[in-house]
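To: structure desk
From: M.T.
Subject: fold request, one chain
Message: Could you run this one when you get a chance? Sequence is below, nothing fancy, just the single chain.
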Amino acid sequence: MKTLLISAIAFTFFTSIVFAQEGGGSQTVVPDVIEPDSSVLTVTVESGFTNSYLWRGIEFNHGLILQPSVNFEYEGFTLNIWNSSTIIESNENAVSQEIDYSISDAIETGNFYFEPALMFYTYPSKNSISVTGEASLFAGYYLGDYGIYINPSSDFLLNVGGVFSEQGFTYDHETDKSHIVLNAGYGTGNKKFVDYNIFGDESVTPHSTYKLIDINGYMKKNLNETVFIKPSFNYFRIINPDYKNSLNTNQLSIAVSIGAEF
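Reply: Done. Structure tokens follow.
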């Protein structure tokens, strides 16, 4: 059973490159602050389907999107490889595929949690090399299952000076059988972020800072010691009237994943 599951998830991850076209953004993730024993290597493989590929309130694809990933954790360090491939596009967006790589370090001291990270966004289907990167620092303060956080990030490759930051509240509750995470945040992006990620090469000058509400969460249900299922959702509400003609101001994605952890 384990061998079959690993093979199936690995197959969906590596063969999803078949759908390669031009790419968009990446997922938004609030780190899981409840970690397993960091003295051993933990490998997690996961494969999920979602109805909408959203990144910081921007819709890149809508329909049926495959998003597999593999995660390696050791001594607080995490290497993640994440892939998004559109199978069916229903909103006339450019069909996209991308592979993202991130490395982070989890640091806990008392009630505080810090996670510096580097993320690289790659678009293998483009004719020329297309890689950009962000540096971020997640900082949170937790009392039991409840916490507050801030997570600023800045582009350091193709859009140097583009900054996006989110701050908000989080609920994180884990037992032997399940793990529930809920987040509610307020995000802002500066002019360089808007120019590059929303308007691209268009000669459009935004009138205000990009602002949004971000509500997301998931429930991870352990089927046994190795296999889990994880339904999740992400809702964005863009609160700038300046962007109503360029973006859908209300966006909701729903995803279901199955995975295994070793």
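Reply (cont.): The first strand starts at residue 42 and ends at 55. Let me know if you need anything else for the meeting.
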